[in-house]
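Example S7 (structure tokens).
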């Protein structure tokens, strides 16, 4: 991922230095595991821990000759520890090191992402309660439907984010496995006890069975979960973009002192932060698709997945970290305009109360289809020409046969629509 979207905390996890350090950690832990079995002298472990180093530049120099990154890495380490290098990588294959180290990196990255999700939840909870009773029009198909509150909209997002957090925890659990099982996963040259030791010390679970690699369905699930989270963030972003339109103007992104909205038009306040989230969500879904392509590898393993993961592992976690932070900032500092919400609700001329009139007529004994047509006639006219639905209904003798002016007037207002807001909030937040 490019520096523009990379926070230092996440960037460090995916640096070359940290990647090689994780390889070294796994190699040393495996040697320690062998020492517990009497296969490596304890004195050698002490020396290895004290002396083991690597040099990224030197690794690349060696790799240019041998065309094998793990061998180049081990050769660089061997230059720092001498004869004790023979105790590293015993009975292991490259994937034992790389896949186990990658799982550790995912674990580190996931801790940041989990905290990001929790921070977003806190923002959504706070804002939902702040706007719990802020009335606005609900829209279906982009068209005025019935009144809701802005807090209810945010409560929906809160619940979705909570589900995403739970999904993510499961995905992290699923990908948090390591292996030290040898060339094709049979432990032919190394004891399963070494694997158990390495995984325990690394905070991982041993893969119950592997071939040369940890199976990539685990990774596909992880990336798919991140893509779902990103898609939720895009949903929030798209809503903000719609609400910020000039014709709506019910909510806007924060606009800081000195910020410019357009290079040409000084009046512009563009929803650039939300648009950015929408764009990055496209990347996240593409990363998930690439991860799924990595599942069907040849036989016990090929390396077609390797080049893909070198890109998508850092990029996806970095991008999602950025997106979560950005959306928490946008939602936490959102400019909300209740008066505009009220104005837009009233634009419908009362047609948003049509269902209440329909059901009142049905209660009076009118067949539903007939009642529907009686109300629709006036509602469509107002939608086309403007006017006031209440006035039209009171003037309609056919409707007045069933509903008095007082009864019609009693059906007006938003209180009926919002009577269960507190009930919904108790279900969501308790």
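Recovered sequence:
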């Amino acid at each position: 991922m490019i520096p523009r979207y990379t926070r230092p905390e996440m960037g460090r996890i995916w640096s070359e230095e940290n990647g090689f350090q994780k390889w070294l950690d796994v190699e040393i832990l495996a040697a320690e595991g062998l020492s517990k079995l009497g296969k490596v002298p304890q004195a050698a472990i002490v020396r290895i821990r004290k002396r083991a180093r690597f040099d990224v530049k030197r690794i690349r120099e060696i790799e240019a000759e041998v065309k094998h990154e793990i061998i180049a890495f081990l050769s660089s380490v061997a230059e720092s520890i001498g004869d004790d290098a023979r105790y590293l990588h015993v009975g292991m294959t490259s994937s034992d090191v790389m896949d186990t180290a990658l799982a550790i990196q995912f674990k580190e990255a996931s801790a940041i992402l989990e905290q990001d999700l929790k921070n977003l939840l806190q923002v959504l909870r706070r804002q939902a309660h702040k706007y719990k009773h802020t009335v606005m029009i609900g829209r279906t198909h982009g068209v005025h439907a019935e009144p809701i509150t802005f807090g209810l909209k945010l409560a929906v997002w809160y619940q979705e984010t909570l589900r995403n957090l739970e999904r993510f925890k499961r995905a992290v659990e699923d990908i948090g496995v390591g292996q030290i099982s040898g060339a094709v996963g049979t432990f032919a040259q190394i004891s399963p006890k070494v694997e158990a030791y390495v995984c325990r010390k690394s905070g991982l679970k041993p893969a119950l069975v592997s071939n040369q690699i940890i199976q990539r369905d685990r990774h596909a699930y992880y990336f798919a979960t991140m893509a779902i989270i990103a898609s939720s963030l895009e949903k929030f972003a798209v809503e903000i973009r719609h609400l910020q339109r000039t014709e709506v103007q019910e909510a806007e992104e924060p606009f800081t002192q000195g910020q410019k909205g357009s290079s040409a038009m000084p009046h512009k306040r563009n929803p650039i932060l939300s648009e950015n989230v929408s764009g990055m969500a496209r990347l996240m879904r593409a990363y998930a698709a690439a991860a799924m392509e990595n599942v069907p590898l040849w036989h016990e393993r090929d390396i077609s997945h390797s080049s893909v993961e070198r890109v998508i592992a850092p990029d996806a976690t970095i991008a999602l970290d950025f997106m979560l932070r950005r959306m928490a900032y946008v939602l936490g500092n959102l400019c909300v305009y209740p008066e505009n919400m009220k104005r837009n609700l009233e634009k419908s001329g009362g047609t948003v109360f049509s269902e209440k009139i329909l059901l009142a007529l049905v209660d009076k004994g009118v067949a539903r289809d007939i009642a529907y047509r009686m109300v629709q006639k006036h509602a469509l006219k107002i939608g086309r020409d403007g006017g006031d639905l209440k006035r039209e209904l009171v003037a309609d003798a056919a409707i007045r046969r069933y509903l008095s002016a007082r009864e019609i007037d009693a059906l007006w207002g938003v209180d009926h629509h919002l009577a269960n807001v507190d009930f919904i909030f108790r279900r969501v937040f308790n």
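Notes on this example. The chain has 18 helices and six strands.
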